[in-house]
Write a structure and sequence with these properties.
The structure holds 2 protein chains of 2 kinds.
Chain A: H1 2-14, H2 39-48, E1 71-74, E2 77-85, E3 108-115, E4 126-135, E5 138-146, H3 152-162, E6 168-171, H4 178-188, E7 199-202, H5 204-211, H6 220-226, H7 241-251, H8 255-277
Helix pairs in contact in A: 7-8
Chain B: H1 2-12, H2 19-29, E1 34-40, E2 47-48, H3 56-64, E3 70-71, H4 72-82, E4 87-90, H5 98-112, E5 115-119, H6 123-140, E6 146-148, H7 155-164, E7 167-170, H8 172-179, H9 187-191, E8 193-198, H10 206-225, E9 231-236, H11 242-250, E10 255-257, E11 267-272, E12 276-278, E13 283-284, H12 287-300, E14 305-308, H13 312-326, E15 336-339, H14 345-356, E16 362-365, E17 380-384, H15 390-397, E18 407-412, H16 417-424, H17 426-431, H18 444-457, E19 460-461, H19 472-480, E20 484-487, E21 490-493, E22 513-517, E23 524-529, H20 531-537, E24 543-546, E25 549-557, E26 562-567, E27 572-593, E28 596-616, E29 622-627, E30 633-643, H21 646-652, H22 656-677, E31 685-690, E32 696-700, E33 706-710, E34 725-730, H23 739-744, H24 746-758, H25 784-795
Parallel strand pairs in B: 4-9, 4-10, 5-7, 5-8, 6-7, 8-9, 11-18, 14-16, 14-17, 15-16, 17-18, 22-26
Antiparallel strand pairs in B: 1-11, 2-3, 12-13, 19-21, 20-21, 22-23, 24-25, 25-26, 27-28, 28-29, 28-30, 30-34, 31-34, 32-33
Helix pairs in contact in B: 3-6, 4-5, 10-18, 12-13, 22-24, 22-25, 24-25
Classes of the chains: A alpha/beta, B alpha/beta.
């Protein structure tokens, strides 16, 4: 197989492609030799020197890594649940809610995804979904994450089971990013999209209206630090999540993936706190305009 | 009294314009410049009834638009499509081919809300099509929703189009970059997709066509995901292999309809060669001067004329000359208009409208007008320069013609070798079948790019194929560069990238250079040059022409892929001095060619640009040199080549020098006829002369004579052997499918090259046959032209 790579790399260099040298990876087994070769294919083959590599090579042993948290609830899918005491359980009225009646706390589901990139389109997927909601007298944080691509269907089905017809989704930029992305994934897995019919409060917009210009940006991390006074230690930035996932898939290195898990957990906890902070019911005089 | 009045009125009415009179005048006055003249006979219309199973609302809408019967080919198309056959309609311009696809598409939309995707090569055509659909829709109140979907579609309109569009009119680039990678957003559209209409498929050839074939393979995968198998309806202008080309593009059997039922008037075709003004150098009067003359005569004779010019600059120049004659009164509406890319779309639409209404007498255009835009009927079409292929020439001529009356088409040759060849072989032009359109969809780099895009769109599963290609090898290459991840039997996308953005459908792999104009302190991108041509045309000091406007390259940022230029007014142009060394890596096939052999195979080409010459315009004097320091370019591609054994050379040639001159000349002639054959753009196919093992190569010296140069790294023993070889190779890494078909007809190429040289009127050689020859030899038997003829004679199979 290396002859093929050499040939293609050489052709690409000749065409002026400036590619970084490929990351050395484990050789992968070839399914079967190229059968049914016609005239054209023979020429192509010569050009690319396609030869099956022979015997498959073993997977590299996973390096010493942090153990995966949670439990495997389906092949390739891990789930983790944590609970915290809730300070208050009063009903909440989200900003810009169409009517004035506050909603029972149990209806809200604060969620956030970690994805394989920002490119959009059908090639980007969520590998982790976290959600925080109030149950009984606790704040419950549940997280789902993939340890293999094949777990995606199970993850989407599990997430769908967390939603009820009267669920109010809460997110940060979720209407523009997370929800459309999940819509794509549900469609590709040929599952009904459960988010479509749920009410969805995207806190980014009211936060921007209130806090625009006060700090360097309105990112969740900035608001978290300056408004909610939450400080994270040793946080893996969200932009490094895709690389952490790839490193896990390729080499079994789970340390950074676990850091992403922690980052995601804090994200949804922060969302819950932010929702409480923006509750119109609690501090109506803080808003400049009503809904 | 009344008869006097009648006569008075009759005298005031303008005489009806008659192309035949103009034809007779031209034939008489310029007999020495007309190298060929022939007539294509008129054809009556053949009609058919509107199909019985056409929906009544559509029938009524057609009636309100004045259509109560069809041409035979339109009815044939309906029948084929109703049977579920993929169909290609091959008829000339203005034969009503859009009805061939509009009828089935609109009918299905009315009956069952079936959807259709239209692909056009340009936005102008797309907009025209939507306008027509809306007219039909309005006339019959059909409720069919048609929209354009391209880069200009505003964001908020896009979602509405995805959900509600019945007919989405787009282009290949948008399908590739904007629709397929977001196919889930189009789920409703794809689930109901019944027809895919692709117009002007003859323009999808070469690299662009190879890319489109792969985009259609990706479309097929996505349609399969949504459980549909749409019918393809394709339209082509006349090319040599419309059915084969259509089948190559869509990867399925296609039913061809080639008999047009539309009427056409008699067409008179003239081939025109400007008179020679310098016999030794082979210089002729400019094609522009001739075109201006003929256009003036035509417009004075009250005929409507369309002139095709080779560049935007030429359009402006010609328009100016004609306006000087006809539009000197600014109070009157302009009779002469120019039409080219670079004008605003609104201006172009206005010009098209005026043309259709018959209010413009002369239109000067670039090839921007070649595709199907409707501009009404014309009397005279003039071509300044050969458009590069027989097929394109006939398509342009096709613009002329009214139903009841004859029309005239004139091809005026420039001094380019191809032009001269065509105009001196009128019988070739007349009898030549239009060229075949060729694509190479399995070109490895193109395939890799599209498999990468396809993996982004839908994961590959073991056993999947990509069109007819098993993708495993490519997926493994992608896995090794961390782009896909294999898990179980699936290959999933994991990179954080949007691959379609990095794939340019008009080039092979990334690496294009942009030309940045730094004149007047601004910085604007004025052109793009592909990687293979960059070293030859963008070295520092080069005069680089963009649309015939000269710029000088001040700085070349090789790694950044940028060339900075400023507008220049120098009186010379530059020509790179490049050496190519070819090494044969593998022979796929070989055949005897006269006393020598011809081969097809894989070669390794090293190209070095060592410097450049400065050549003064008109006199062609060499007024200086400049150095060039750029990295060598290597190319691994397919080629065909001819060789003669040492004995044959010893017998036929008095000296090595003679043989070398012969090979250089033969290479030029072969390259010319081969380029004609494959409809190649000028830089797609390259030529080279050298020894087969890259130990030596041949270059032209200052006097145009061949010099055998031994490469620096050649082994000592190699210098003794003398095996000159003529190579023609595809100028893209991995090849682009040109060499193979040329090899199959190599004997004909040799014959045509011999004929080219024999028929050339120059004495010792000229750019039109064997290449520029500046040294004039006394001995007629030893001219470069004669030597080239000798080489070709040796290669000619008896």
């Amino acid at each position: 197989m290396s002859a093929l790579i050499d040939k293609l790399r050489r052709l690409r260099n000749q065409a002026g492609v400036q590619a970084a040298p490929p990351v050395p990876a484990m050789p992968v087994p070839v399914s079967d030799a190229l059968a049914r070769i016609g005239d054209e294919r023979q020429r192509l083959r010569r050009l690319l020197d396609l030869r099956p590599s022979g015997k498959p090579s073993p997977r590299m042993p996973a390096r010493a890594t942090l153990p995966l948290r949670g439990e495997e609830i389906a092949p390739g899918l891990y789930a983790l649940e944590q609970r915290y005491g809730a300070e208050s359980l009063s009903p909440l009225l989200p900003p810009r809610w169409p009517d004035c009646t506050p909603l029972a706390r149990a209806r809200f589901l604060c969620f956030d995804t970690e994805t394989t990139g920002l490119a959009g389109g059908s090639g980007t997927r969520a590998f982790m979904i976290g959600a925080a909601d109030w149950i009984g007298d606790e704040l419950r944080v549940r997280q789902l994450y993939l340890t293999a691509m094949s777990g995606e269907g199970a993850m989407l089905a599990a997430f769908a089971r967390w939603l009820r017809p009267d669920t109010v989704l809460v997110s940060y930029n979720g209407r523009s990013y997370d929800a459309p992305l999940l819509a794509v994934r549900y469609r590709l897995q040929r599952l009904v999209n459960p988010l479509r019919d749920c009410a969805h409060v995207d806190l980014l917009h009211p936060v921007r209206r209130i806090y625009r210009g006060r700090w360097e940006n309105c990112r969740l991390a900035t608001i978290e630090r300056n408004v909610l006074r939450i400080v994270r230690e040793d946080d893996l930035p969200g932009s490094e999540a895709p690389a952490a996932w790839r490193a896990f898939l390729r080499d079994g290195r789970s340390t950074d993936l676990m850091r992403v898990l922690e980052h995601n957990r804090q994200d949804v906890v922060t969302l819950a706190r932010l929702l409480e902070h923006m509750d119109q019911n609690a501090t109506p005089s803080a808003w400049l305009t009503s809904a | 009294m009344s008869t006097d009045l009648a006569r008075l009125i009759a005298d005031k009415l303008p005489a009806p314009p008659d192309p035949a009179r103009l034809l007779a005048r031209l034939a008489q006055r310029y007999a020495d410049r007309i190298t060929g003249q022939f007539t294509v006979p008129a054809r009556p219309a053949r009609y058919a009834e509107l199909p019985a199973d056409l929906s009544p609302q559509l029938r009524e809408a057609l009636r309100l638009r004045g259509i109560s019967q069809l041409y035979s080919h339109q009815a044939e198309a309906w029948n084929a499509v109703q049977r579920g056959l993929h169909t290609v309609v091959v008829t000339p311009t203005a034969s009503g081919k859009s009805l061939c696809y509009t009828l089935p598409v609109v009918d299905a939309a009315i009956r069952s809300r079936a959807k259709a995707l239209y692909l056009f090569p340009t936005k102008a055509l797309a907009q025209d099509q939507v306008a027509e659909l809306l007219e039909l829709n309005r006339a019959g109140n059909l409720g069919v929703r048609a929209y354009t979907f391209d880069g200009d579609t505003p964001g908020d309109a896009r979602q509405a189009i995805r959900l509600h569009g019945d007919i989405v009119v787009s282009n290949p680039d948008m399908l590739h970059q904007g629709m397929l990678p977001h196919h889930t957003k189009w789920a409703q559209f794809f689930e109901n997709l019944r027809y895919v209409v692709i117009d002007e498929i003859h323009s999808y050839r070469g690299v662009f066509g190879s890319h489109l074939a792969n985009v259609l393979r990706r479309l097929a995968r996505i349609c399969a995901f949504y459980g549909v198998e749409p019918t393809f309806i394709l339209c082509s202008a006349t090319i040599g292999n419309p059915q084969e080309h259509a089948e190559n593009l869509v990867g399925r059997p296609v039913h061809a309809i080639t008999d047009s039922g539309a009427p056409s008037g008699e067409k008179h075709v003239l081939l025109w060669n400007p008179p020679v003004v310098n016999p030794d150098l082979g210089l002729r009067a400019s094609a522009r001067s001739q075109v201006t003359r003929i256009a003036r005569a035509a417009i004075r004779a009250k005929l409507k004329a369309l002139v095709f010019a080779p560049s935007r600059l030429m359009v402006e120049v010609l328009t100016k000359y004609l306006k000087d004659v006809f539009d000197h009164d600014p109070r009157k509406p302009a009779r002469i208009h120019a039409y080219r890319g670079g004008y605003l779309p609104t201006e172009r639409r206005r010009t098209e409208q005026l043309m259709r209404a018959g209010q413009i007498d002369g239109l000067v255009s670039t090839s921007a007008l070649e595709l199907g835009v409707d501009i009404g009927a014309l009397d005279v079409v003039l071509l300044q320069g050969y458009p590069g292929s027989i097929a394109a020439t006939w398509q342009r001529f096709g613009r002329a013609g009214r139903r009841q009356q004859g029309s005239i088409g004139v091809l005026v040759a420039s001094s380019q070798p191809l032009d001269q060849y065509i105009v001196r072989h009128p019988e070739f032009f007349r009898a030549a079948p239009p060229e075949q359109a060729r694509i190479a969809p399995d070109q490895p780099l193109i395939l890799l790019d599209h498999i990468r895009c396809a993996a982004f769109e839908l994961a590959f599963v073991d056993g999947d194929s990509f069109g007819p290609v098993p993708p495993e090898a490519y997926l493994q290459v992608l896995a090794e560069s961390d782009v896909v991840h294999r898990e179980g039997s699936r290959w999933e996308w994991i990179a954080d990238a949007y691959p379609a953005n990095a794939v340019n459908l008009r080039s092979v792999a990334d690496g294009n250079f942009v030309v940045v104009d730094r004149s007047d302190g601004r910085q604007s991108i004025i052109a793009e040059v592909d990687y293979s041509s960059a070293a030859l045309t963008l070295y520092e000091g080069a005069i680089h022409m963009v649309q015939s406007v000269p710029y000088q390259v001040e700085k070349l940022d090789w790694d950044g892929r940028k060339a900075y230029v400023t507008r220049t007014h120098v009186d010379y142009y530059t020509d790179a001095i490049d050496y190519t060394r070819l090494k044969v890596l593998e022979r796929f096939d070989g055949i005897r060619a006269g006393q020598g052999n011809a081969y097809l195979g894989e070669v390794h080409v090293v190209r070095r640009v060592a410097g450049y010459k400065k050549i003064r315009y008109y006199t062609h004097e060499n007024i200086g040199y400049g150095p060039v320091t750029l990295p060598d370019q290597e190319l691994h591609t397919t080629a065909l080549w001819w060789q003669l054994p040492q004995e044959a050379l010893d017998e036929a040639f008095a000296s090595r020098q003679d043989a070398l001159d012969g090979f250089l000349g033969a290479a030029t002639a072969l390259h010319t006829v081969a380029s004609v054959r494959v409809m190649a753009e000028s830089r797609d196919l390259m030529k080279s002369v050298g020894s087969g093992d890259a130990s030596a190569f041949v270059e032209r010296d200052q006097r145009g004579r061949g010099q055998w140069r031994v490469a620096d790294d050649a082994a000592a023993g190699d210098t003794e052997r003398f095996t000159p070889t003529v190579y023609l190779y595809d100028n893209y890494p991995g090849g682009v499918g040109l060499s193979d078909p040329l090899f199959r007809v190599q004997a004909e190429l040799v014959r045509e090259a011999r004929e080219l040289i024999a028929a050339c009127a120059c004495r010792a050689g000229c750019p039109a046959c064997v290449g520029p020859v500046l040294a004039v030899d006394e001995d007629a038997a030893a001219t470069p032209k004669a030597q080239a003829a000798r080489v070709l004679a040796l290669l000619h199979a008896a």
